[in-house]
Amino acid sequence: MKEKDFYINFGNTHCVMIFELLEIFYMLITHEFMYWPFHFILFFIIAYTTRGFLARKYKPYKEGLSRDQVKVSVIIPEYREELSILEKTIRSAIYNKPDEIIITCDDNRKEEEQLIKKLQQEYPSIRISYIAHGKRLGKRASLALGWLVATGDIIVQLDSDTIMAPNTINEIIKPFADPKVVGVQGHPLLFQTGSRLSYIMGQIIELSRDVVCKMLDGFLVVIDGKIAAYRRDFLIKNVRNFLVESWGKSKIILADDRALTFLANQQGYKTVYQSTAYARSAAQPSLFKFINQQLRWARSGYLYLIKDIKSGLFFKAPRRYRFQQITYLLAPISFTAAVIQTLLANVQVVNILDNGILLSTGLYIPGLLLSFIIFSIGLGLTFAASIKLLNLDKVEIKKLKMKFIDIIILGLIGLFILYPMTLYAMLTYRNVTDWLTR
Amino acid sequence: MEEKPPKILIELKSIKNKLKYTYRTKKCKFCGHKNPPDYIYCEKCSRPLTTDQEKIKEWLIQKYLLLTLEKISDYPDIVATRRKSKIGKVEFDYIIELADNNKILLYIVQEKKKIADIVNEVIHYNKINKEKIRLVFLLLLDQSGQNNSIIPNVDGKIIEDAKNYDIEIEYFEIYSYGENNPLDSIK
Description:
The complex is a heterodimer. Chain A is α/β, with parallel strands linked by helices. Chain A has helices at residues 6-30, 38-56, 83-95, 110-122, 139-149, 168-172, 196-216, 232-237, 239-244, 256-266, 287-311, 313-316, 319-361, 367-390, 394-399, 404-427; strands spanning 72-78, 100-105, 127-132, 154-158, 162-164, 181-191, 227-231, 246-247, 250-251, 270-282. Chain A has an 8-stranded mixed β-sheet, with helices on both faces. A two-stranded antiparallel sheet of chain A has the order 8-9. In chain A, β2, α4 and β3 form a beta-alpha-beta unit. In chain A, α14 (367-390) crosses α16. The longest helix of chain A has 43 residues, at 319-361. The two termini of chain A are 25 Å apart. The model of chain A is unreliable at 1-8 (pLDDT under 50). Chain B has 2 domains: 1-50, no CATH class; 53-186, Trna Endonuclease, Chain: A, domain 1. Chain B has 5 helices and 7 strands. Chain B has helices at 7-24, 53-70, 114-129, 150-153, 156-164, and strands spanning 26-27, 34-35, 78-87, 90-98, 102-108, 132-139, 167-173. In chain B, β1 (26-27) and β2 form a beta hairpin. In chain B, α3 packs parallel to α5. The termini of chain B are far apart. Residues 176-187 of chain B have low confidence and may be disordered. At the A-B interface, α4, β3, α5, α8 and α9 of A face α2 and β3 of B.
């Protein structure tokens, strides 16, 4: 599973499992068999508990490679980024004192050049280069050009809207003391830029990714491009593979982060997570952009899942990786089965419950309203339980200041938008051709 | 109340500002376009406006690397890259080591007389090492086109010799775009 898509499961699962829970109670009370609650068992009990349990064993690298042992280049691929955010990103890189910063600009805006000139004058001791190639290369080629130009042994790649904490580079290079490590995932969280809902959903994804990365430490599914570090040697050796990668007859132009992680895992290297290398990235400013981003991620997630299986990587990967991938593959299928059975069987359960309430209290509640009440309570309960089971960062969850209504809205978005979108992404996974958010 | 300056003074000030701006612009040596003073590359033709040799060198290398990336499917895998690295007695600006014993050597030409010596040095190297070498001379031609004589300056026999030792010579000239550019014909 592409960890980024975790929310799709996370949100959807909540929507249906409460009805499944209700049905389980019904079956227990009446001793009448209705169905097997696969979705509930597989995605709530097993998946969440396992992830949470395995993630608890994770420990970040406390010692390792230090700055005096290695030369570090920061590469920031840029395309139509808001200048104020780009400036913050570059400044955050400057405060981390790398040996050089390379900004590869794919849109050739004059304002960027002026901004970079300003920063060059302000910080003459740090080498800040600006590559404007006069044509649109795309993210992969821009990155590859940056690798070829860079002089560092370690390349820290930042999205143009990712702001590093002051000690991030020192932290992210530590795992490279192990010669088998070629890629390190930093710990990105989000900051709000527009829509509150897209920020909350995005942040929950990042917090869930934190758990999944901890679980998969050593063999990650994806080193998210928001903040990643690689050995330059490894990148250089894979320039060709990275640029000519195709699926059937079409060239894969997106999912650069997924491609690099795939290559590293396939070549037997370690891909690790350094949870102490913090950075904050811009959340999608609108719900529409967020949904488009999820569609892109889901598509690339499925594409690489198939690639994993076809290439044999899936079979030689650790069990926890396979577990992650299987739950990802089965999620929409299992969820569809759960929705169908909920619609068929649950109506009956809700009616019985409704009659029970009417008989015992004399209060008539319309079936639809009762369903919605159960749905809402269920969302609240399962959301709280999920956070506990997965052991999500409670401090960051608190910072989201979520209200009960937010949880209901998120559930509805999960059910009516993200779930159908996941199915659509499954069917159209080959269309990994458009960023959809720029 | 503050007195308004006469109209003629305002107009003169405006003309002065315009002149000042014109004076400050950086004229492109290649296309003649007037660029804002802080520009390194011409906003019209993208060629360098600076005389800083290091910047120009880096720009030339980047341009060639970009070309290499665009044709990456034609090349074997890259194994390593090196900067300022020596082959024999010659220091190359950038070396790309490729799989199957292939190498791309980038040399930024500053003294045209040296070209034959460099080719000879690489031939000598390859007599022993037997690699497949692409020897690339990066040239930044000036507006007058005086550097055009570089290629004919190299003895045809040396080029033949190089070919016999699996050395392919390439000249990468940065001016060579734009329609009807008289310099294009030389490439």
